[in-house]
Amino acid sequence: MAKFSGGYDYDFVDQPPKSLECSICLLTPRDSMVISCCGNHFCDPCIGRIKSNRKPCPLCNSPDFTTLLHKGVAREVNALRVYCPKKAQSCNWQGELGQVDHHLNPTANSRGCGFVMIECKYKCREKFERRAIAFHEADNCANRPMEVQVAFLARKLEMLATENREIKNKVTALEAENTLLKQQMEARPLPPVPPFYFTVYNYRQYKKDNCTIMSPPFYSHPKGYKMSLQIYPNGSNTGTNTHMSVYAFIMRGEFDDTLQWPFTGRVTVDIYSYKLKKWTQIQVFNFKEYPIERGYDCVISDGSGYHLFFPQDQVETEYMFKNGSYTFVCFRVNRVELV
Ligand SMILES: [Zn+2]
Ligand SMILES: [Zn+2]
Ligand SMILES: [Zn+2]
Ligand SMILES: [Zn+2]
Q1: Is 133 left (phi over 0), alpha (psi -120 to 50) or beta?
Q2: What is the 3-state secondary structure (H, E, C) of 186-197?
Q3: Prior bond of 195 cis (ω within 30°)
Q4: What is the DSSP secondary structure assignment for residue 89, as one 8-state letter?
Q5: Same topology for domains 7-104 and 196-337, yes or no?
Q6: What are the residue ranges spanned by the domains of the chain?
Q7: Counting C-beta atoms within 10 Å of the first and last residue's C-beta, which end of the chain has fewer, N or C?
Q8: How many CA atoms, within 13 angstroms, populate the side-chain half-sphere of residue 87?
């Protein structure tokens, strides 16, 4: 037994006139029938059911009546504008009520409702919404005929070729960038490492002015600890007025993350003897006895050295080069051993 359905339960663009309504189901009549007793009209299914149950006319109570299709009302109903019944799925079609069946027809051409379920034409027994069926049939269906699969593979190949070209272009660009960076790295001067030489010009003037002299920074070894020497010509602490004091410092360096802490190496410092015309080893700074922790906030973390690095009078007579008013003292960090 088929499910009973009365009039059209559509979503109308404009509310249809009350006069069209079927007074049994209160909807817009489907196949409107006029009856012989009182001339009113109803849906065909609504009045047909009353007639087959041998009931009287629901409006005038006449026991006997005949029915005839009301072409005028049917035309008017078919011309009413409605929204697609799949509007909730976001089909935005609207048209005459008489066109709805065509819009929803699952066998109609692809211009019909995109939200109607359609069977795959290659009989894989899957169903898809009309808007998705073309993709399934061309790119996905396991039942595709050979020529459809070949066309699909050709499209895919073309896509991969495009992708491949783009990746190659990117690789070329990256290679160029890499080459440039390498050239820049090579052009950058290497940070100085031992043996590291530095000369204090005007040594006597600095001594007279009671200055502290900082050497330029150097590295213990390539990518090693960044260091500096501090020289007090007039001496400091117990060396004041009798000795030159020298301290070695660890500075915050760009390779600190890769180094071991604390620093415990040995730093050998020489001075050039003008008397002997050769470099003379003066002191070895042993950081194993005074380990230096890494400095996080400060540029110079910590250091240690000799208050009594070398007697001042000996500097004056043997290690200072004098030329008129100029006086030089030449220092050398000969090596840094990591222990
Ligand atoms: Zn009805
Ligand atoms: Zn009647
Ligand atoms: Zn639709
Ligand atoms: Zn299929």
Answers
A1: alpha
A2: HHCCCCCCCCEE
A3: yes
A4: G
A5: no
A6: 7-104, 105-172, 196-337
A7: N
A8: 13
Counting ligands in written order, the one closest to the CA of 33 is: 1
Residue type at position 273 = S
Rounded CA gap, 207 and 233, in Å?
A: 5
Q: What is the pLDDT of residue 339?
A: 83
- Three-state DSSP at 299 gives coil
How many A from CA of 106 to the centre of ligand 4? Answer: 15
For domain 7-104, the CATH architecture is 2-Layer Sandwich (3.30)
Report whether 96 contacts 76 (CB < 8 A).
no
For the chain, how are helix, strand and coil distributed in percent, rounded to 5? 30, 30, 40
The HSE-up count of residue 147 (CA atoms within 13 Å, CB side) is: 0
Residue type, 246: V
Cα–Cα nearest to 215, from 205, 200, 225:
200
How far, in Å, CA of 66 to CA of 36, rounded? Answer: 5
Cα of 73 from ligand 2 centre, angstroms = 17
Token digits of residue 120: 């795959």
How long is the chain?
Answer: 339
Q: What is the DSSP letter of 337?
A: E
Q: How many CB atoms lie within 10 A of CB 12?
A: 14
Tell me the ligand closest to 112's alpha carbon.
Answer: 3
Give residue 55 CA to ligand 4 midpoint distance, Å. 51
Kindly indicate whether the domain formed by 196-337 is annotated with CATH number 2.60.210.10: yes
Residue 9: HSE in the Cβ half-sphere, 13 Å Cα cutoff:
4
pLDDT for 2: 43
**Run means of pLDDT, 10 residues per run, the chain, 339 residues:** 72 92 92 94 93 92 92 94 93 94 81 90 91 90 93 93 94 92 79 91 91 93 93 94 93 91 94 92 91 80 87 93 87 93
Q: Is the separation of the CB atoms in 338 and 265 below 8 Å?
A: yes
